[in-house]
Each structure stands twice: as C-alpha cells, then as structure tokens.
C-alpha cells in the first residue's frame, strides 16, 4: 500500500520482519494513546534508532521508556519506507502499557502526553508524523482495528 507524506514523498507500507534501523511505537493505555512531546518536532509517537547490537524490539522498548517513562508489552505490527534521496524504513510496534513512572529526564523529549484521541492533539502542536496518512492508516486500521474508543 502506498501513501504520500506531508512533504509529498512516497511512503510504502508493508508487513515483513522487524529488522530495520528505525522504530516507531504506538502506545495504548487502556482507552488512551501515550504520546511524547519532542523538543523540536512537537507531539508525536515515541521512536528512534536502533543502537549497535540491539534488535528492533529491544530498541522499541528502550525508546518507549526513554521518551515516556513507560514499559509495556510490545507487538510488531508493520514496517513502512519513506522514499527520499535518503530513504529509510521504520518498524512499527503496538505497545500495551503496563507501567509508567515519572522520570527526572526524558531523552530528547519533554515527557509523556496522554490523549483519548489523536484529534485531541492541537494541530499546531502535532509533529509531521501525526499528520501523515500512512501513520493515520496504521493507527486506524492496524492498531485500533475498528475499536471506536480511539476514533
């Protein structure tokens, strides 16, 4: 499946193995989404890059904790590739949050943001990531899967 991102780049969604260098986590706490406020980009889902010797799943657990203080049960959902001069692919994980604790410091972010719906995030505070059709599709069709409480 193909999409265009907010900058007009082609984005290809595929389900393969979680072996890519970048990870994105879509955390769910009961009937709410757990987001993070990046210091430069705004409110978005947590994510980042794998470190040397780390699997995508390990990176997803680490990034989730570093950016939100949360831990949970993670499940691989899909991968997507953004086609640019320097194309990249992200592995996407769903996280069922089991615990969250306040941290003295959040890596690259201002910490957790909890919302009932992505529409609750003020448009001017949304990162580009939350505006992309591909991410909206993943959340709506692959994560929530028809569950009205997140719509």
Automatic annotation (TrEMBL):
InterPro entries: NUDIX_hydrolase-like_dom_sf, NUDIX_hydrolase_CS, NUDIX_hydrolase_dom. Residues 18-138 form the Nudix hydrolase domain. Keywords: Hydrolase. Pfam families: NUDIX. It comes from the Bacteria. One of its GO terms (molecular function) is hydrolase activity. PROSITE patterns: NUDIX, NUDIX_BOX. This is NUDIX domain-containing protein.
